[in-house]
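for the recovery benchmark. tokens below, seq after
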């Protein structure tokens, strides 16, 4: 062993703090950026939002001679001077307009009356947690036991499943609440919670959930058989191997099928039917980041949807004239404070504008590459497109494009689509029409229209694709079928 001193030349790439902040904001969704901007407005004294005087203009609108409210905008008044839209100059035409301007954010009102499918959660009734808490209050429990029961209920998710082990709950209560409880106490109270409504609540997994519901049903031969199947042969039941279950239980296939029908009608999410107040209204909905509209001539119009206000430097921080002529230590500290806060605000404004411009440029490139799809909205019209194709148009790095499209959505008149939907490689290099989206569209259509008593196998799907001119391997068909969430033919089979 001996020490040596040497030199090494190495090239590395490091991001500046400004670049790190930009990358972080680029990955954010629209609501997350709005929260980030609001946080910055609260924390940065040199940052302020430009007030929108539109509402003030409407509120102070004058009245006409007949007493009605006069609320025409200047552009509308100018349009009234022309006989038709054909006579109007381009800058006054309501169908035109640059969807984004340099250094400013586009702000459009998202019309909720349009037929965009929304998946918001409406919750007007009693939530699952509140329902369980009210039942706990009716149990014959002492103060400590009631505290344990409430703690257990607080660890049940909106679907009704237990999220922690009894040992973990005991440790949490000891650390957070200073309550010393044994695993036996937790287990005993947990079993009491599992008897509450709705049936199946407090389960640890799907099998346990089904077992709890079956235990609450009237005792019949079929329900007892169902309990035995869930307890001992759940894996075979999931694979629909009813014949093997019948052989092991020593009963007829008809008895197993009858028990299986009972299991199929159980609720896999016992808390799913109970609105949960912990989930805010619309919290699970999708907020689109872009809007694409098709004009009469097939011309596409792209808009960036967000509620990010226009930002600027607050007037008192714009210049440090107030302390420029002053001298002394305090004056120097004041000047340094103003410069620092002003620079932070400028950097934040720059990052927000860069994010908006980057998103719009990336979406514009996608719109250019997938123009036919946005005109027809047929999945078969989605052409092969990878990150490199967008990079060739925008000039951005592949990682920037990936972050700009992650978790972002575009709204059209027919629905809302994730941007990741438009990225797909061509399956065959010699034929650009053989894309993953086209293959999946054909497979989905075939499975949805198949005879449910005789579902199509992967081999039959492969032959069907060959007839459509899409010659691909059977294992590729199986991969796309699984990607779309369709089970194998044996598990899709339905008996009447």
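predicted aa per position
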């Amino acid at each position: 062993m001996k020490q040596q001193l040497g030199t090494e030349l190495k090239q590395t790439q490091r991001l500046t703090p400004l670049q790190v902040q930009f990358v972080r904001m680029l990955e954010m969704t629209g609501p997350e950026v709005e929260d980030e901007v609001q946080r910055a407005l609260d924390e940065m004294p040199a940052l302020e939002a430009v007030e929108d005087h539109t509402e003030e203009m409407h509120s102070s609108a004058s009245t006409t001679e007949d007493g009605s409210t006069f609320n025409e905008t200047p552009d509308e008044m100018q349009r009234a001077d022309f006989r038709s839209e054909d006579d109007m100059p381009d800058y006054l035409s309501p169908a035109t307009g640059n969807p984004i301007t340099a250094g400013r954010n586009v702000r459009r009102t998202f019309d909720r009356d349009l037929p965009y499918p929304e998946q918001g959660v409406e919750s007007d009734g009693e939530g699952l947690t509140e329902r369980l808490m009210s039942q706990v209050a009716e149990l014959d429990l002492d103060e400590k036991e009631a505290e344990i029961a409430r703690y257990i209920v607080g660890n049940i998710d909106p679907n009704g499943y237990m999220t922690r082990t009894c040992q973990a709950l005991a440790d949490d209560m000891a650390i957070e609440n200073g309550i010393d409880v044994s695993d036996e106490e937790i287990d005993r109270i947990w079993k009491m919670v599992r008897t509450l409504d709705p049936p199946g609540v407090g389960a640890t997994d799907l099998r346990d959930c089904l077992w709890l519901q079956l235990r609450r049903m009237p005792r019949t031969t079929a329900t007892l058989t169902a309990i035995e199947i869930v307890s001992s042969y759940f894996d075979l039941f999931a694979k629909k191997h009813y014949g093997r279950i019948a052989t092991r239980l020593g009963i007829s296939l008809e008895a197993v099928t009858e028990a299986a029908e009972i299991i199929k009608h159980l609720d896999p999410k016992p808390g799913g039917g109970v609105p949960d107040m912990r989930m805010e209204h619309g919290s699970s909905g999708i907020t689109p980041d872009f809007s694409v509209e098709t004009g009469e001539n097939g011309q596409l119009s792209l808009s960036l949807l967000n509620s990010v206000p226009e930002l600027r430097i607050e007037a008192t921080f714009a210049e440090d004239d107030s302390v420029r002529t002053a001298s002394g230590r305090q004056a120097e500290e004041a000047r340094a404070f103003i410069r620092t806060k002003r620079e932070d605000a400028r950097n934040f404004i720059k990052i927000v504008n860069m994010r908006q411009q980057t998103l719009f440029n990336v979406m514009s490139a996608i719109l250019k590459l997938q123009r036919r799809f946005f005109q027809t909205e047929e999945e078969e019209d989605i052409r092969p497109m990878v990150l490199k194709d967008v990079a060739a148009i925008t000039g951005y790095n592949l990682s920037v494009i990936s972050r700009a499209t992650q978790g972002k959505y575009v709204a059209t008149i027919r629905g809302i689509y994730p941007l990741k939907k438009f990225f797909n490689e061509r399956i065959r290099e010699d034929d650009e029409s053989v894309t993953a989206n086209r293959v999946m569209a054909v497979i989905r259509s075939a499975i949805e229209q198949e005879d449910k008593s005789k579902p199509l196998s992967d081999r039959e799907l492969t032959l069907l694709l060959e007839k459509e001119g899409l010659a691909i391997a059977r294992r590729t068909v199986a991969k796309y079928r699984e990607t779309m969430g369709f089970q194998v033919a044996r598990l899709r089979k339905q008996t009447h």
